[in-house]
Amino acid sequence: MNTYKCGACEDPLSDGAHCTVCNRELHFHCAGITETGYRKLGDRKHTWRCSKCKISASNQPPVSPRPESESAILLEIRALAEKLAPLDFLKEEITVLRAEFTDLRLSLSETNKELKDFNAKIRDMEARLKHVEKVQEQVDILQTRLDKLEDENNTKEQWTRMNNIEIKGIPQSNHENLFDIVGKIGTKIAYPVSKAQINFINRVPTREKDRAKPIIVSFCNRYVKEDFIAAARLLSKAAPLTTGQIGLAGNQRIYVNDHLTLQNKALLSKTKKAAAETDFRYVWVKHSKVHARKDDTSPAIVLKSEKDLIKIK
């Protein structure tokens, strides 16, 4: 930035007003104008005059000498005029500042209104949030009660199936004799059962459309049911039980298991999946309960619900 000297006080000057009459660069205060007032002149800067040049231009033509007292008064008036010259620009600047202040006050008023509206919305949201939190608490309580009721219902339903076994893999025919089929299975597994030991026997629908309906056998005695399943599993360890071994067509594998509820079947499936992911070697059902074991030396884990799956992870 270029540096000049003030034409009035001769102090260094980097920025100031330019008088178009005396062609001097002046400090704003030496020129009799504020910086803001000078910058607002716009095109009027091309005709602007400093206070000294204004006073010189307003002087009257020379007149006859006056008494010394009048000259002193005139000097005082001129000095006062020099001091008062910036007032015109101060008045203009005050007008501009007043307009800016009015705009600022209006802006603040609008901002305050927006803040009030915003605070009202925040209070409304807080009230709604508290309501939602209360509702959520009630939902959590109801969900806990529902889970408990479902577990209790599943336990009761499983209890009604304690004497039942489920046999899968037997092809279905129109004139089949289910008692005869169960008897042949009992003979093959070295645990023969009579018709008198069976409460009822029937095929039930399945979700797997392409497979034969499983056979549900309800024994009159739960211990007979447990021994029947144990004998079938013992045989399966040596060689799988198949339809051909009991005189039926094909060589399809036969499965003999506890008659589980839908909830427990889902738990068994998820347990097998979790066990495969965590290298658990054994998953089985005993007394209609799902069991798992890491290896031959680890303790058995009983899983009663999906929450217990964390035990094998």
UniProtKB/TrEMBL annotation:
Protein name per the record: FP protein C-terminal domain-containing protein
Coiled coil: 108-152
Alphabetical list of Pfam families matching this protein: Baculo_FP_2nd
InterPro entries: FP_C (IPR057251), Transposase_22 (IPR004244), Znf_FYVE_PHD (IPR011011), Znf_RING/FYVE/PHD (IPR013083)
Domain spans labelled FP protein C-terminal: 261-313
Origin superkingdom: Eukaryota
Alphabetized UniProt keyword annotations: Coiled coil
